């Protein structure tokens, strides 16, 4: 299926849609996005979700106001690779329970996605997102942001999603793009990158609902 056919429409931005976040869950649009050492990557611009399953798949992050030396663009961040804080950790996994140690960057602000974690250069600065108010923490470096494709509304494709996956998997170009030919959304989103239970508290089948 060529992109010119414009039929890849199973992912929709929350803004301007007939949907909203379910009660009890925060709408994180406008929140700061930082890496695990506390440098601002950008802000949450949008949430990209699947209307059929009513699940958020990606955070759209605008890196134009980044404290890092990156190009101006928007990037896609798989929902299961991020952690929310709002004066405290909103969703607390057992493997992310401990506080930061005194001598190193602690695991409490690193997201385990079921795949190799993206590395960040060592930084002696202690960053505790619990003290930072409303913030989303994702484990990326400048290099990873540069590698991520620029997000454009209504221009997302299987190739785009596979490129994002390769970056968050830490894979190199030995993984070819042939997977795009057999791309099946119902299987693609079984990956831990899209485990929204690591992000949202809701124990429901979806985290998006039709507007009342």
Describe this structure in words.
There is one protein chain. This protein has 212 residues and is an alpha+beta fold. The chain has one domain (3-199): Photosynthetic Reaction Center, Chain H, domain 2 (Alpha-Beta Complex), CATH 3.90.50.10. The protein has helices spanning 142-147, 158-169, 185-188; strands at 12-13, 19-21, 32-34, 40-50, 55-62, 74-78, 83-86, 134-137, 208-210. The strands form two sheets. Strands 1, 3, 4, 5, 6, 7 and 8 form a seven-stranded mixed β-sheet that branches. It is globular.
Tell me briefly what this model is.
With 212 residues, the protein is an alpha+beta fold.
List its traits.
212 residues; Photosynthetic Reaction Center, Chain H, domain 2; seven-stranded mixed β-sheet; two-stranded antiparallel sheet; 10% helix; globular; PRC_barrel-like_sf
CATH architecture verdict: Alpha-Beta Complex
How helical, in percent, are the residues?
10-25%
Kindly report the CATH topology: Photosynthetic Reaction Center, Chain H, domain 2
Q: Total helix count?
A: 3
Q: Judging from the principal axes of the Cα atoms, what is the shape?
A: globular
Termini gap: 36 Å
Instruction: Kindly name the structural category.
Output: alpha+beta
Number of domains: 1
Considering the protein shown, what is the CATH homologous superfamily? Photosynthetic Reaction Center, subunit H, domain 2
CATH class: Alpha Beta
Mean pLDDT across the residues is 74
Helix-strand sequence: EEEEEEEEHHHE
Task: Provide the β-strand percentage band.
Answer: 15-25%
Which spans of ≥5 residues are poorly predicted at pLDDT below 50?
Answer: 1-6, 92-124, 171-181
* Radius of gyration from the alpha-carbon trace, in angstroms: 17 Å
Q: List how many beta strands DSSP finds.
A: 9
Biggest sheet, in brief? 7 strands, mixed
Pfam families: PRC
Domain PRC-barrel: 27-88
């Amino acid at each position: 299926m060529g992109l010119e056919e414009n039929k890849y429409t199973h992912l929709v931005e929350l803004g301007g849609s007939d949907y909203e976040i379910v009660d009890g869950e925060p709408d994180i649009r406008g929140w700061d996005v930082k890496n695990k050492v506390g440098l601002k990557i950008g802000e949450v611009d949008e949430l990209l979700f699947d209307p059929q399953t009513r699940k958020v798949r990606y955070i759209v992050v605008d890196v134009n106001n980044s404290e890092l030396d990156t190009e101006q663009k928007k990037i896609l961040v798989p929902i299961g690779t991020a952690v929310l804080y709002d004066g405290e950790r909103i969703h607390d996994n057992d493997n992310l329970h401990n506080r930061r140690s005194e001598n190193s960057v602690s695991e409490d602000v690193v997201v385990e996605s079921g795949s190799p974690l993206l590395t960040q250069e060592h930084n002696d600065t202690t960053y505790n997102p619990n003290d930072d108010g409303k913030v989303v923490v994702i484990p990326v470096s400048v290099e990873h942001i540069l590698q991520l494709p620029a997000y454009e509304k209504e221009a997302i494709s299987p190739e785009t999603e596979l490129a994002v996956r390769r970056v968050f998997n830490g894979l190199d170009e030995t993984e070819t793009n042939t997977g795009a030919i057999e791309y099946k959304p119902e299987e693609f989103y079984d990956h831990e990158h899209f485990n929204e239970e690591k992000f949202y508290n809701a124990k429901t089948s979806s985290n998006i609902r039709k507007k009342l």
